[in-house]
Every structure is written in structure tokens, then in C-alpha cells.
Write a structure and sequence with these properties.
single chain; 82 residues; alpha+beta; 4-stranded antiparallel sheet; 4 strands
């Protein structure tokens, strides 16, 4: 899974997004993007460029409060079937 997270981190950073964290728990990938105004369509495209679309299930893009509510981040999550 380290190769997967490294690939995703590189892809998001290449597009100019700062990341809070990239984590995997039971094949559930979670990427915290430090841009509350990020385009969901662009974020989905970045994931599909970095990971084969057939290995991505249930891709979701949401926003949530982080750091005790001081910061809002965009969270990209999906199940990895690879």
C-alpha cells in the first residue's frame, strides 16, 4: 500500500495541492487535501490518473473541519480493489 499512497501524494502535489494526510485502513483510502474550494471533478481526475479506475470503488469527495474546527479540508476517499 505504500506504493499506492506515494503515487497518490505525488499526483496531488504535482497538481499543486497541499495534503494533510494520505492513509489506508482496510483498503479504504483517505486523502485530506488542504483546499476547501478544490474542484471535486478535478480531484476525481487526479485519482483516476494515479490509480486504475477499475481499482477504485465508491470515490467520494467531501469537506470536513480539521484541527479543532480551525481549518476546513477537502477529503477524497475510496475503496481500493487492487
Amino acid at each position: 500500500m505504500q506504493e499506492l499512497t506515494d503515487s497518490l501524494e505525488a499526483a496531488f502535489e504535482e497538481h499543486g495541492y497541499g495534503l494533510g494526510e494520505v492513509s489506508v485502513n482496510r483498503n479504504r483510502v483517505r486523502i485530506a487535501v488542504r483546499d476547501p474550494e478544490a474542484s471535486a471533478g478535478e480531484l476525481r481526475g487526479i485519482v483516476h490518473d494515479a490509480v486504475d479506475a477499475e481499482e477504485v470503488l465508491g470515490l467520494d469527495v467531501t469537506t470536513e473541519s480539521a484541527s479543532g474546527g480551525d481549518e476546513v479540508v477537502t477529503v477524497v476517499s475510496f475503496r481500493y480493489r487492487g
